[in-house]
Design a protein that fits this description.
The chain is α+β, with helices and mostly antiparallel strands and 282 residues long. The protein folds into two domains: 144 residues, Fructose-1,6-Bisphosphatase, subunit A, domain 1 (Fructose-1,6-Bisphosphatase, Chain A, domain 1); 115 residues, 3-Layer(aba) Sandwich (D-Maltodextrin-Binding Protein, domain 2). It is 34% helix and 22% strand. The structure holds D-MYO-inositol-1-phosphate and calcium ion (3 copies). The site of D-MYO-inositol-1-phosphate (IPD) has 16 residues, from strand 4 and helix 3.
Length: 282
């Protein structure tokens, strides 16, 4: 099984690179960045998102015809997205579409692979930085990437940088909750708050020790599947925003180092989103 999984993972890395090249080229072509909207005027998609997802799925289908897919741009609006026990590729073709549209330099291709509903490996290619993060579940920690990585050992949250995002839900109540949790975090006070504009890159920043924790409500499984393995294999922890184990389908997540996770969960308690704010994808 090890060799089989490695073969699948090698293909994921290769196709992520190929996809990243398409994204880089599209950045220089205004037409490829023409904006369409989805659930709201700030929920953006471009033909490049769709093209890249198609490219990845077709490439995988040729090699692994029995595998299933959950891809952001293939899940129809309002459709339930079901994660089964079957081998499944969980794809975010462009994580950071808003960044892509604005040429803001953090844009990732994110690919997670699950079997029995457990993510077996994650590949995040931050394609404008040309950084490839990969990790697979093995006994030893196994994150690899093409630059120096120093997982953070900071346990005093007052010395931390926290990453979060504002998502694309601009309903007053949701925005209030976001700011309430942010106020708590800033009041600790932490050294700083950042957001790369992509969930996958934020998680790789945790894995790299550049930030101590990342939290967000509203994420989908394709935003966090790959990053979840990368964080855990780097030595980090995943939690629900209200504490306890994370459910990758629940649309909420905290990814952090061991030293800060409890404090962060406590401070964002004010967030306490109801299931209605962020309905689970399944
Ligand atoms: C989004 C990005 C963003 C996060 C949103 C995601 P997309 O993904 O990861 O940082 O705040 O929750 O939906 O739409 O650019 O693939
Ligand atoms: Ca999107
Ligand atoms: Ca995404
Ligand atoms: Ca996307």
């Amino acid at each position: 099984m090890d060799d089989v999984l490695q073969n699948i993972m090698d293909h994921a890395v290769a196709v992520a690179r190929e996809a990243g090249q398409v994204v880089r080229e599209a950045l220089c072509d205004e037409k490829q960045r023409d904006v369409m909207t989805k659930s709201s005027t700030v929920d953006l998609v471009t033909q490049t998102d769709q093209r890249v997802e198609h490219l990845i799925i077709q490439s995988v289908k040729k090699k692994f015809p029995t595998h299933r897919f959950i891809g952001e741009e293939s899940v129809a609006a309002g459709e339930a997205c079901v994660l089964t026990d079957d081998p499944t590729w969980i794809i975010d073709p462009i994580d950071g579409t808003t960044n892509f549209v604005h040429s803001f330099p953090f844009v990732a291709v994110s690919i997670g692979f699950s079997v029995d509903k457990k993510i077996q490996f994650g590949v995040v290619y931050s394609c404008l930085e040309d950084k490839m993060f990969t990790a697979r579940r093995v006994k030893e920690h196994s994150v690899t990437e093409n630059h120096l990585m120093l997982f953070s050992s900071i346990s005093d949250v007052r010395r931390s940088i926290i990453a979060t995002e504002f998502g694309s839900n601009r309903e007053t109540e949701t925005v209030e909750k976001i700011f309430s949790s942010l106020r708590n975090i800033l009041n600790i006070p932490v050294h700083g708050v950042r957001g790369a504009g992509t969930a996958a890159v934020n998680m790789c920043l945790v894995a790299s020790g550049c930030v101590e924790a990342y939290y967000e409500v509203g994420v989908h499984v394709w935003d966090v599947a790959a990053g979840s393995v990368i964080v855990e294999e780097a030595g980090g922890v995943l939690m629900d925003v209200e504490g306890g184990p994370v459910d990758l389908m629940s649309r909420r997540i905290v990814a952090a180092n061991n030293g800060t996770v409890a404090h962060i969960v406590k401070e964002i308690d004010a967030f306490s989103p109801t299931r209605d704010d962020a309905p689970p994808t399944q």
